[in-house]
Task: structure prediction
Amino acid sequence: MDRYAVFGHPVRHSQSPRIHAAFAAQTGQALSYEAIEAPLDGFEATLRAFIAAGGRGGNVTVPFKEQAFRLADRCDDLAAQAQAVNTLRVEPDGRLAGFNTDGIGLLRDLTQNLGVPLRGRRVLLLGAGGAAAGVIGPLLAAGVAELVIANRTAPRAQALAARFAGQGEIHTAELTAPGEGFDVVLNATAAGLGGQAPAVPVGVFGPRAVAYDLVYGPPAAPFLTLARQAGITACHDGLGMLVEQAAEAFWLWRGVRPATAPVIAALRGG
Ligand code: NAP
Result:
């Protein structure tokens, strides 16, 4: 049976084994998928040992995505632009191919699952870490009218915007004053993991704005509560993105596209 795994630290909370088990059952693919917690200074050794034992590929989560990018022998364009890899595939010649499926996952969830149009919309992206880096390219390619990146540490946002300059209307702003009336506000910060909402004024939300937190479950509550207090009713967490980025990884590994809706529904049902 082909082996796959998600590597992270911590990784015990990961829903990925459940998602890929559901995909495998649904598509009749014979594979196993486990969660492997690599030591903070031992990602490469853990990954190499997994591959030596027959591992065919893996997902990579916090804090190893940048390391995975450096370890990959070749990367697709999205991973190269993001300088972060969340999906690895062992090629027939043993080389390691790296991909970033986060942006595809977010776009599929927004546009296909939630019916949120992006073309011509003003989008505010909060955060400038690995998740933000992964979604910028696909957001610009989707034809947003303007993408503003605001981050607590402003130089990180500026560096990220500079990397994507020329691909669309991309700007940076202070987190506490990022502008007003956006159509879509995406929280790609890790603030919710500490029980906080990013320190943005409620004026960032336009009257019919969509608020989306890339985090899912309880850590999405602080940001989505802020949005609701601003009168926003279209509030979503990142569970759909998680399942969609997993589906893209599954397709890259197995050449089969699983249906995501029943898996999202099963996860929402507990
Ligand atoms: P990361 O690289 O560590 O970046 C963290 C970001 O959060 C940075 O921009 C950081 O700002 C900001 N931040 C942290 N605490 C903050 C606070 N209290 N107030 C304001 N900003 C704060 O992490 P990441 O890989 O980008 O991941 C971000 C989140 O996205 C994670 O929670 C992750 O679980 C989620 N994610 C979800 C999916 C999905 O499929 N749903 C996929 C990828 C990631 P500074 O630069 O100032 O430190």
Q: What stands out?
A: The longest helix spans residues 239-254. The first strand starts at residue 2 and ends at 8.
